[in-house]
Amino acid sequence: MTLEKEEIKKLEEYAYQIRRLSVEMIAFSQWGHIGGAFSIAEIMAALYFREMKLDPRQPKMESRDRLILSKAHASPALYACLELAGFLPKNSIYKYCELGGLEGHTHVGSAPGIEASGGPLGMGLSVAVGMALGMRMKENPRSRVYCIMGDGEINEGNIWEAAMSAAHYHLDNVIAIVDYNKAMAKGFVWDQMNIEPVADKWAAFGWNVIEIDGHDMEQVVNALHEARWIKANGKPTAIIAHTVKGKGIETAEFNYKWHTHAPDAETADKFLRELSRTYGRPEQGYSKLNLKNTKDTFYGGE
Question: What would be the CATH architecture of the domain defined by 5-301?
Fold first, then answer.
């Protein structure tokens, strides 16, 4: 499937906006995970603005597709999508990590469009399998459950129990996406717990496997299309997306030290200006730079 240049450009703009909003909310809250949010930006853009059937006016419609963000610490990327897609009011991101606002890890009920709570890693695929089985029982053959996992997360035994179950029950309505950015919180995957050969493992568990460059928008879109329509053959599909942690900011790229770290206002401003240049957009800095990280000014002055 060949995408028109304008469609690729539109989706890449969404990926840029996802990264920009992620920096904004993480800098403002002074907590969050830039590296893992950035590595899935193209994947999230393709899912929310092309592939998934969703309606912000009916977030619980039965015919919707579901996304389980198993690596729930990458929630800034999801919240950015929900705001851009109209599920959340504008500027909702500035309630990130605030009492009564958006949770640091996804939490059902905190915002429309959140399908599952997260936090403990390794649980998301089990949730996705349960949802897919439920959809099968309701005779809903068109909807899909997408589950985004971290590469370090697939160290967890729960993942492989769920993988075995999905294949056993022929759940071709489950599409797992591994964000293979090669870095975990405390180091590189191959040092912490080597997971290679990744593709062969999923294939051995009875899954279709597609490997892609997770930052090439055309490859991402084609893989999602193939998983949904071409490989609906009685087997679940795993997309191994080779990505770069912190993609788009030079000091954060492939740097596990930016797995979880919040930039101060000045650093956030530099990051956002660098993103603007990297993606050929008009230069735009951190919108709350004048706050010097004091949230009270924002709530009291705007």
Answer: 3-Layer(aba) Sandwich (3.40)
